[in-house]
User: Fold these one by one.
Assistant:
Number 1:
Amino acid sequence: MSNCNWVCFDCRYSKRQNKMRENTPKCVFCKMELYNIGYKVAIPKKTDLQGWKNIKKLSFERDIKHLERKAIEDVREKHEIEKEIVRIEKLKDNKENRQLIKKLKKQICIN
Ligand SMILES: [Zn+2]
């Protein structure tokens, strides 16, 4: 049911395999790790060069959008943590708060 399509864009090889399996499946031809394109994308025929070009483009665009969204979320989260640090710094200067600030700063990689 949760089988995904894994592909090698270069060899135009595809395989269906459950996403939850531990190892990333490899291409039988070039031995590179296959790319998970999900379960909704239809796999073009091996001879359909344009079709393969299209799914490659779509997949990469999808990945870029995903990364962009994640980057925005990361910035937002970092900002929330910075605000929290400022808030705690205004509180009582005790060991507990100092440790908490240290922990939060570590989370956003400032020392
Ligand atoms: Zn391959």
Number 2:
Amino acid sequence: MSSLPLNSEPTSLPSAPGERSDTRSEPRTSSARAGSPVAPTSGQLAFQLPSELPQLSIAPEWKDQQRLWGHSFHPMCSYLASFPASLVHAFIARYTRPGDVVLDPFSGRGTTPLQACAEGRIGAGNDLNPFAHILTAAKVDPPTKADIKTRLVALRVAWAATAGEWNEIADRVAADPGATELMVPGPGSRPIGGSMAARPDSSVPAEVALAFHPRTLAQLLYLRAGLDPDDRTDRFILAALTGILHGKSASYLSAVMPNTFSMAPRYVREFVSRTSFHSPERDTFALLEDKVRRLYRQPVPAARGIALLGDARDSGVRFRESLRARGLPERARLVVTSPPYLRVVKYGYYNWMRLWLLGYDASAIDDLLDDAHHRDAYLVFMREVLRGLRTALADDAVVALVIGDVEMDRGRPANGGIGLAEAVWELAAAPEGYRLAGIALDDVAAGRKMTKLWGEEAGQATKLDRILVLSTSEAGRRRAIYGASLPIDWSWPPRTPRAL
Ligand SMILES: C[S@@+](CC[C@H](N)C(=O)[O-])C[C@H]1O[C@@H](n2cnc3c(N)ncnc32)[C@H](O)[C@@H]1O
């Protein structure tokens, strides 16, 4: 849903050039100028004709809220095509009560489950991307402020004792960027004050070596080798680290690329050599402490949520199992989700540096995810997802699917991308027995869209997204229609106890 407002750095940015020979996942824009970085543009365009399906008149008030509306954990790390927490609130406030379960089978950076927890609901998210899973888990199952402060102090103390060794390693890496024979301790291979399954050593990609000052790189290598993603506190620290890894201000560890997504490795190399780029020295611990302070501006949500790692197609069964295991209601009253679109975002490739930090291979993740389907395969995929979800839905559940139109498929007009939400209804949801409450339209201000990041033209092109609102019964359909016009409270943090 590239036309939804982004929650980070909503500016026009140079775009990530494609580099891999895998053209399957190589976006291109027809408007890219020769010599300039090629934009990963896949514009999503307004469906200019009125939809033939009934409209649901939910006023898109979420667009009138401040950019960072919602819990202070939301902006932990930017994530392409995330929707704003205010959009999730528009559904949570209308269709759930405290204690109800709210699901998102494609949770991305965890917007739906976190906002649900922050409003006293049980938020449960699932994603097949391990980076998304870490972000979601960090947000819905966070450590206390005291725990994280204690751990940060311990990490600094342990760093002081070993800094010389790590600085030496980083100096060797910086002296010969990309040397494959130069091995450094791999992610999780040198636990700091705990025990983890050791992982093998690995070499550092040249673009990583070029992106950071050697002193910063030393601290990063130390934390990467020492933090345990299965530990609640360490996972939160790792997730916060991904959020400050690169960006264009002094609060980021490298200024080599924007914070929104990873520029292509080849672009990084060319940029470094063209501009004689040397990253300024940044103290990882100080920036991490600042980041954590910002994240903990608001109290930790009282309700703990659930983060699952797996395929959305069988998420229904897994949601139920994990809710049951915790003694919670097994069926959800609300789903708010945005599935991946047709070949729009490559979640691995555009996050390759964050994935390096976490110890994952970006191209393996893109091979795994369903973010590269053409229309027919996409509709089969969506049908399977909706079928699998039913088992985890209460009889009167409301299901909101945010699906925009996809105009361009990597530089060429997309085949069947316009009216995608309507097609999902007709060919995926209706055959699985869902009822249609209606389609809510969301016209988006051109300056606040994700496609804007990828070039002016793409940004200008997008005007509408669609929110397909479904249910599994007539009672649910009526509930969805009746609730659409209810006024809701937009104060945040809330003045009433709704979020406690
Ligand atoms: C549009 S994003 C969701 C963003 C989310 N609403 C947020 O606010 O952060 C779609 C997500 O689908 C995930 N995904 C792709 N294929 C999947 C699959 N088969 N099962 C589960 N998740 C998948 C991607 O990793 C991505 O995080």
